[in-house]
Amino acid sequence: MLRLALPSDGEMAEPTLQFLRSCGLAVERPSVRRYTGVIPSLPDVVVLFQRSGDITAKVDEGSADAGIVGLDRYFEYRVEGGDSLLLIDDLSYGRCELVVAVPDAWMDVTSLADLIDLSVELREKGRDLRVATKYPRLVQRYFYEKGLNYFTLVKTSGAMEVAPAMGYADIIADISASGTTLRENRLKSIDDGTVFRSQACVVANRRLQRDAEKLATTKHLLEMVEARMRASGYYSIEANIQGPSAEAVARQVCAAPELAGIQGPTIAPVYSKEGEEGWYSVTVVVQQDRLVDTVEHLRRVGANSLAVVPASYVFGQECGAYRRLVEEPKREGLSP
After folding, report:
1. Which site among 73, 79, 180, 313 is 20 to 30 Å from 255 CA-CA?
2. What is the pTM for the complete model shown?
């Protein structure tokens, strides 16, 4: 069984289930107290519901084969040079930012440059700038890259927005989606203070490379996810057009190449109920921003009975995420 770890808590829990459902991979969980589930359309998968902060470690150590997690948590908790691989870095949901925020009362601190100056002043007075965060790895790397060298990280697992008010930190670095929580706690983000931009991603353990059955199941899962994401914003238009031949109809449709579909139109003969000859069914797949223009173009070349439906899946020539998994160099000495 392929062990797929999904968030059991936090902002990503329900959106992840909704996303998989939209991919045709609906998860069934007998109750919220049960930490395993199944995907009926993929019977060789067992779903493991895990705390969001634990998923990266579970994939790294191999107790889960793959997982969906926030990109921020993946880069914060992954083992450098470890066994986890990033297969899809953006699932188009769970978007948020790791930002540096300071008290509203700090009127003179509005940018990272101001914060750097303040840290120097504090160091001259014998102490460092104290930063409360759940992301010490990302924050430390960011500060060093930006030239902020005098600081102390205060790791916390609670509601860190109160840290400056309680006095155990001067500022915070935390995840924010809208900024509402910061404002309600009299904090403000600073210019150039975005440490990391995050969204939901797919990760896997490289040991999958050595298990043919799990690889096949993983490929099925990744194909469905990629095709569903690729289909977002695409529409299929089907219309009937009369012409002397399929080739002639194709030339008319392709007279506007940008409105003729991804690769071009699909054309097939229509067997008219009235016995009329020369009718062809034309199908094109276009992006949403070209939908109306394409309908107008097809009308101009004689189309009628136009039917438009959103594309459910658009499969490419290959699955990019699966290719990344199988082409990642295998490591010697790893047990299956």
Report:
1. 313
2. 0.86
Task: For residues 120 and 215, state if they share a domain.
Answer: no
DSSP letters, 187-228, are EEEEEEEEEEEE-EEEEEEGGGGG-HHHHHHHHHHHHHHHHH
Give me the mean pLDDT over the 40-63 stretch.
Answer: 95
* Vertex 39 angle, CA 35 and 42, to 5°: 140
Its domain, for residue 242, covers 234-310
Q: What angle do CA 134, 136, 138 make, to 5 degrees?
A: 105
Q: Are residues 211 and 177 in the same domain?
A: no
* Biggest CA-to-CA distance, the chain: 94
Question: What pLDDT digit, counting tens, does each position of 181-199 carry?
Answer: 899 999 999 999 999 999 9
Say whether both 59 and 203 belong to one domain: yes
Please tell me the distance from the alpha carbon of residue 124 to that of residue 118, in angstroms, as a whole number.
10
For residue 298, give the CATH number of its domain: 3.30.70.120
Q: Which of 153, 146, 138 is nearest to 70 (CA)?
A: 138
C-alpha 315: how far from its chain's center? 18
Q: Could you give the CA distance from residue 308 to residue 294 in angstroms, rounded to a whole number? A: 11
Render pLDDT for 102-137 as a digit per residue (tens, 0 to 9): 999 999 999 999 999 999 999 999 999 999 999 999
- Same domain? 142 vs 260: no
- Three-state DSSP class for 248? helix
